[in-house]
Amino acid sequence: MAEVVLSSISKSFGDTSAIDDVTMTIPDGAFVVLLGPTGAGKTTLLRLVSGLETQDSGDIRIAGQSIAALTPAQRNVAMVFQQYSLYPHMTVRQNLEFPLKSPLLRTPQAVIDQKVKAIAEVLQIAHKLDNRATALSGGEMQRVSIGRALVRNPEIYLMDEPLSSLDAKLRADLRVELKNIQARSGATFLYVTHDQIEAMTMATHVGVLKEGRLVQFGSPREIYEAPVSIYAATRLGQPRINVLPADIFPGAPAGAHSIGLRPEHIRHGEGQEAKVIRVEQLGDQTRLHLTIGEYPIITVTDAHTALKGDGIIKILPHQPLYFDAAGMRLV
Ligand SMILES: Nc1ncnc2c1ncn2[C@@H]1O[C@H](COP(=O)(O)OP(=O)(O)OP(=O)(O)O)[C@@H](O)[C@H]1O
Q1: Ramachandran quadrant class, 64 (left: phi over 0; alpha: psi -120 to 50; beta: rest)
Q2: Could you give the C-alpha distances from 54 to 113, 181, 210, 215, in angstroms and in order?
Q3: Which of 3, 133, 173, 219 suits 252 as a labelling partner, its CA being 20 to 30 A distant?
Q4: pLDDT digit string (tens) for 214-269?
Q5: How far is it, in rounded angstroms, from Cα 178 to Cα 17?
Q6: Which residues contact 167 (CB under 8 A, 6 or more apart)?
Q7: 283 Cβ contact list (under 8 Å, min separation 6)
Q8: Residue 141 above 90 pLDDT?
């Protein structure tokens, strides 16, 4: 159980500023997803909390205590990397037992056996417990890495795209399991992903990073519905928010340079004429690729639409977001 408070954290590598004055309070038991393009500083932030890197300035507190003087081993955190990190000469069982075998913990073997079995079942690798780590597929190795973090009961889990190497079905299963584990253990999660569904479904909070700075921190709903900028708006939502010149539709407020329209925030049947370029049937819904003049727009409609490519449809903004010339939202 731990609140994590980052106060004015900065970290540079030579001339590269990886983290730039980040202040963030992660409530106890929160599931925080960090979003941002490659190089935004997500991994560096996790490594600073884990103690694998040391900040140049600022302070990190876990449960009210500054952790500056603590080694990675002394911080009660478990980290899962994007790339699995297993002991190759050991079996899956030995890899999973390893964190529990620390002499400091003195965990009885019966408890270790029971924990390893439970985690192996959650991760769907129980049938591989006696295989050597090297005799596993990449996805299986990644599940063992996740398992090694989960068998311990750390206060904080730091996970860097832990599910990205897994197939879609397993990813969906483990998404649910990680959320269950979080709910049961009350642990705090700091989690990096590029997966929109993971971000929307798992996060209690989202931190949007841009070039090392935290540009928005809030619930996924807040970031989705009230982004501070075009940059924050484009981090969440699949298909992405449509960003168009504000004057394409009547009614833009003074100072508006762009209008942002989520695909589902476009009313059909009235308003401006748009050309239908492509109709994509997705089963539960249909995605429409439109253009107004040179501007592409993606919207969604019901699964059984009669619309075809080359048709014309009228569209009207519904819940538009407006942004100024610098890309900041007008409120
Ligand atoms: N050990 C290092 N030495 C030098 N530069 C580094 C080091 N680690 C990170 N950087 C730089 O710091 C910046 C932030 O990197 P970081 O890995 O935190 O980004 P990221 O958001 O995790 O990206 P990705 O999504 O690609 O993992 C980048 O410009 C990166 O090149």
Answers
A1: left
A2: 36, 29, 20, 22
A3: 219
A4: 999 999 999 999 999 999 999 999 899 999 999 999 999 999 999 999 999 999 99
A5: 32
A6: 139
A7: 303
A8: no
Tell which one of 11, 13, 56 to mutate to probe ligand 1, the residue whose CB is within 8 A of the most ligand atoms.
Answer: 13
Q: If you measure from the C-alpha of residue 14 to the centroid of ligand 1, how many angstroms do you get, rounded to a whole number?
A: 12
Nearest-atom index, ligand 1, CA of 47: 18
Question: What number of H helices and E strands is found in the chain?
Answer: 8, 17
If one counts every other C-beta atom within 10 angstroms of the C-beta of residue 218, the result is: 18
Task: Give the closest residue to 61 by CA, choosing from 156, 149, 152.
Answer: 156
Query: Is 146 in a helix, a strand, or coil?
Result: helix
46 close to 158: Cβ distance less than 8 angstroms: yes
Is residue 188 within 8 A of residue 34, CB to CB? The reply is no
* Alpha carbon of 38 to ligand 1 centroid (Å): 8
Q: Which of 11, 90, 106, 86 is nearest to 49 (CA)?
A: 11
Find the residues whose C-beta lies inside 6 A of ligand 1.
13, 16, 18, 36, 38-44
Q: Which position has the higher pLDDT, 213 or 138?
A: 213
Q: ipTM beyond 0.85?
A: yes
**What pLDDT, on a 0 to 100 scale, did the predictor assign at position 1?**
61
Residue whose structure tokens are 């619930």: 219
Residue 123's pLDDT band (cuts 50, 70, 90): confident
Dist CA 246 CA 251 (whole Å)? 9
Q: Residue 98: CB partners within 8 Å, gap ≥ 6?
A: 87, 90, 148
DSSP state of 188: E
Give the whole-number percent of the chain exceeding pLDDT 70.
100
Is residue 289's pLDDT more than 70?
yes
